[in-house]
Specification:
Elements (H helix, E strand, L loop, with lengths): L1 H5 L3 H8 L3 H9 L6 H10 L4 H4 L11 H7 L4 H9 L4 H17 L10
Length: 115
């Protein structure tokens, strides 16, 4: 999330780290382990601390931490960007209600409806 927030592409981060962009993808998905030295280099490039990257900050970050967990779900940021591009309030409400209906139909817990 930090990389996206800073507007750094996976390719640019990979180039800085001396690895392939596929390797950065694997790091982000958790498919490959990140060495301590690599984690330090990543934190430096992303202008943060290792502690913040691994969720070990002493003080809670500004905002809701569960929001960050939700944004870490693959596709969540892209979905949010697309949703933010919808200008009509009624259409945004319809998209939310459709999404909630799909979740309910899949057998997940009921979700609150928008009006």
């Amino acid at each position: 999330m930090r990389r996206k927030w800073l507007g750094i592409s996976q390719s640019a981060l990979a180039e800085h780290l001396g690895v392939s962009f596929q390797q950065v993808q694997k790091y982000e998905r958790g498919a490959n382990r990140v060495s301590a030295s690599m984690l330090v280099r990543i934190a430096q490039r992303l202008e943060t601390t290792v502690g913040e990257l691994v969720g070990e900050t002493a003080e809670p970050q500004q905002g809701d931490s569960s929001l960050f967990e939700k944004l870490a779900v693959p596709g969540a940021v892209q979905l949010l960007e697309a949703f933010a591009g919808v200008q009509q309030p009624a259409l945004r409400t319809a998209i939310l209600n459709l999404t909630r209906s799909l979740i309910e139909d899949a057998g997940d817990a009921p979700v609150r409806r928008s009006r």
